[in-house]
Amino acid sequence: MDISTRTVFIAGATSGIGLALARRFAAAGSTVVVGGRRTDLLAGAAAEGFATVTVDVTDGDSVDRARDTVLRDHPGLDTVVTMSGVMIPEDLRDPAHFGAARQTVDTNLLGTIRVIDAFTPHLIARGGGTVVTVTSGIAFLPFPPMPTYAATKAAVHAYSEALRAQLDGTGVEVSELVPPAVAVTPEHARANPRALGLDAFADEVMDLLGADPTPHEILVEGVRMHRWAERDGTYDELVAQRSQALSMLPGR
Ligand SMILES: NC(=O)c1ccc[n+]([C@@H]2O[C@H](COP(=O)([O-])OP(=O)(O)OC[C@H]3O[C@@H](n4cnc5c(N)ncnc54)[C@H](OP(=O)(O)O)[C@@H]3O)[C@@H](O)[C@H]2O)c1
Fold this sequence. Notes:
- The protein has 252 residues and is an alpha/beta fold.
- The chain has a single domain (7-248), classed as Rossmann fold (3-Layer(aba) Sandwich).
- It has 10 helices and 9 strands.
- The protein has helices spanning 16-28, 39-47, 60-73, 98-126, 147-167, 186-191, 198-209, 224-227, 229-232, 235-243, and strands at residues 7-11, 31-36, 51-54, 79-82, 129-134, 172-177, 182-183, 196-197, 217-218.
- The strands form 2 sheets. The chain has a 7-stranded parallel beta sheet, sandwiched between helices. A two-stranded parallel sheet has the order 7-8.
- Helix 1 links the parallel strand 1 (7-11) and strand 2 (31-36).
- Helix 1 crosses helix 7 (198-209) and helix 4 (98-126) runs parallel beside helix 5.
- The radius of gyration is 18 Å and the shape is globular.
- It starts with 6 loop residues before the first strand and ends in a 9-residue tail after the last helix.
- The protein binds NADP nicotinamide-adenine-dinucleotide phosphate (NAP).
């Protein structure tokens, strides 16, 4: 895609990867609407010059209101990024994890579907555009401390594939961003020294997104070992390695 001419809505751009990509799209010349729940961070984004909209992707009415606002102010919207996500550790030996599982499904999977449903008719009607979904290396190589997270990201991968097939011929393309571990805060960097730096990751993503045609999957170098572990025969060994992280769960 031409990253310099787009009108982009990013649901989940108040912080982290979403905000980093919003800044890069804007720096390249695109117009960006930043969405999320935290009003203080939305105000910060507005002060940087972004259009902003409040949206809670777990609430269908909120998503529809956000869609109406975005399309009223930006009728030429051509790109939707479903970035909103939560990442919650769960101990499956304790049924009390269910609340976290529900929140994870409602945000990461159903939230993605709500946002796509809200904007797909507009993109089809204008005869073209791009939906960027967001999964994770964990969609392809489980990280056992975050089971429902992994399940939702694998589900969004499958959903993205089906969406691409269903939208074939409409001009609307679907691209799946597959981040590896990315240090979005100093605490993340300390907790996982192997996580990619946010700036390096975002730069690599924009280079890949800028290809024509837009790749079906945005795979930075650092995620390819996860994405292709099964094909490469490293899957069992890597899952065993990653299971050592179960010690991070309280009580283990
Ligand atoms: N960082 C990583 O290592 C990594 C790796 C793989 C994939 N990812 C994925 O990348 C995406 C961004 O994560 P991040 O690491 O940048 O974390 P982050 O800084 O916590 O960003 C998460 C974003 O999602 C939004 N969000 C959460 N719940 C929402 C809701 N109910 N409604 C609307 N927005 C909601 C947050 O905005 P508000 O709180 O303001 O609503 C925030 O803007 C997520 O989908 C995550 O799963 C991250």
